[in-house]
Amino acid sequence: MKKPGRRKKATQGTSKTKPSAKSAESLESVYEQLKEMLARHAPPFKLSDGGVRGKFSVQLMVPKPVAVPGAYGGKPVDLQMAAAILQKGYVGLYLMCIYMNDEVKRKLSPALLKLLQGKTCFHVKALDEGLKKDIEATLVLGTQAYRERGWLQE
To answer: Among 39, 34, 41, 72, which residue's Cα sits nearest to residue 146?
Structure first.
């Protein structure tokens, strides 16, 4: 006797395919370009690889732990400014500087905002010169915002 429950949906015509070798290669190129952009901001930030186990990832961190007012019980924590993670169908670009600063978010270009999924994650599938300039401008704004908050030392 079968147990009552959910019936398995037919998967006819909805096969999941892996990204082609060409698209995977281009995503790797996007990841490498984003990694280079992040590296240009170290110093004043610290660039570290491998923040996510089993994935190509890089993160831009404040060099010393920071006490964020009203968060973490006032205890100093490691603070990220930006990160890039190579995912299956896109490169995730995380810009933490917009999470804590609406002024910076308002200055983002419409082209970059179209890629925003959630609060700080941008799904990047391809880079052109305009998008590179937009991301670079955002990293500069984020660096400035972190300095103004006293999170970066000269």
So the answer is: 41
Spatial contact of 62 and 152, defined as CB atoms under 8 Å apart: yes
Cβ–Cβ < 8 Å for 58, 84: yes
Domain with 44, as residue range(s), is 21-148
Give dist(CA 9, CA 66) in Å, integer.
50
Better pLDDT: 10 or 76: 76
Q: Evaluate whether residue 97 is within a structural domain.
A: yes
C-alpha 90/C-alpha 122 separation (Å) is: 9
Q: Regarding predicted confidence, which is higher, 72 or 39?
A: 39
Kindly state whether residue 55 falls inside one of the protein's structural domains: yes
Chain segment 128-138, per-residue pLDDT in tens: 888 899 889 88
Asked whether residue 37 is assigned to any structural domain, the reply reads yes
Based on C-alpha coordinates, what's the Rg of the chain? 19
Please say if the pLDDT value at position 126 is more than 70. yes
What's the total number of domains in the chain? Answer: 1
